[in-house]
């Protein structure tokens, strides 16, 4: 009698040691646009709204993203997009570009910004609820100006 009880107790203990096995997961895909234009390259991040659990995400390419095996729940979605920046080849080119920017009122010294979507863009940091299974999301971000 004690041997079967020991075997059952051992199996139960092993099941407790294997978290994640059989847990429901979400697959999320969709599109991202900023001011009506597809986002070329960037990253989408899903952060647990309650601060518990892993932050998950994936790349945005040609305005589309696809992230698999995410833990369901309430998530804050952060979207970052960057554009290709053509760097000046010489100091003379850099100086000329900085003078042109200064004449337009921008004295920051940054010739061409790489960030395409500001962190405070309308629609960024949205709250979504992910259920187990597949989900399509569309993000239409807009500038605040």
Helices, strands, pairings?
Elements: H1 2-16, E1 26-34, E2 37-38, E3 41-48, E4 56-61, E5 64-70, E6 73-82, H2 91-103, E7 126-130, E8 133-141
Parallel strand pairs: 1-8
Antiparallel strand pairs: 1-2, 1-5, 3-4, 3-6, 6-7
Oligomer type: single chain
Low-pLDDT segments? 6-22
Question: Strand-and-helix sequence, N→C?
Answer: HEEEEEEHEE
Write down the overall geometry: elongated
Question: Alpha-carbon distance between the termini?
Answer: 76 Å
pLDDT averaged over residues: 79
Q: Strand count, sense and closure of the main sheet?
A: 4 strands, mixed
What fraction of residues sit in β-strands?
35-45%
- Give the helix/strand class: alpha+beta
- The helicity comes to 10-25%
Radius of gyration, CA atoms, in whole angstroms: 24 Å
Number of strands: 8
Total helical segments = 2
Brief summary of the model shown:
The protein is an alpha+beta fold and 145 residues long. 19% of the residues lie in helices and 39% in strands.
Describe the protein's architecture and organization.
- This protein is α+β, with helices and mostly antiparallel strands and 145 residues long.
- The protein has 2 helices and 8 strands, in the order αββββββαββ.
- The longest helix is centred in the first third of the chain and has 15 residues, at 2-16.
- The chain is elongated and about 60 Å long.
């Amino acid at each position: 009698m004690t041997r079967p009880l020991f075997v059952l107790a051992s199996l139960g203990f092993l099941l407790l040691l294997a978290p994640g096995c059989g847990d429901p997961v979400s697959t999320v895909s969709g599109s991202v646009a900023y001011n009506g234009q597809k986002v070329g390259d960037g990253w989408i991040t899903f952060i647990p709204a309650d601060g518990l659990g892993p932050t998950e995400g994936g790349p945005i390419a040609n305005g589309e993203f696809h992230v698999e095996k995410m833990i369901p729940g309430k998530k804050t979605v952060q979207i970052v997009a960057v554009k290709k920046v053509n760097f000046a080849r010489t100091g003379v080119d850099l100086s000329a570009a900085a003078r042109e920017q200064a004449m337009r009122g921008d004295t920051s010294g940054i010739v061409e910004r790489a960030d395409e979507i500001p962190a405070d863009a309308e629609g960024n940091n949205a709250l979504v609820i992910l259920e187990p299974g597949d989900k399509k999301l569309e993000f239409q971000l807009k500038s605040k100006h």
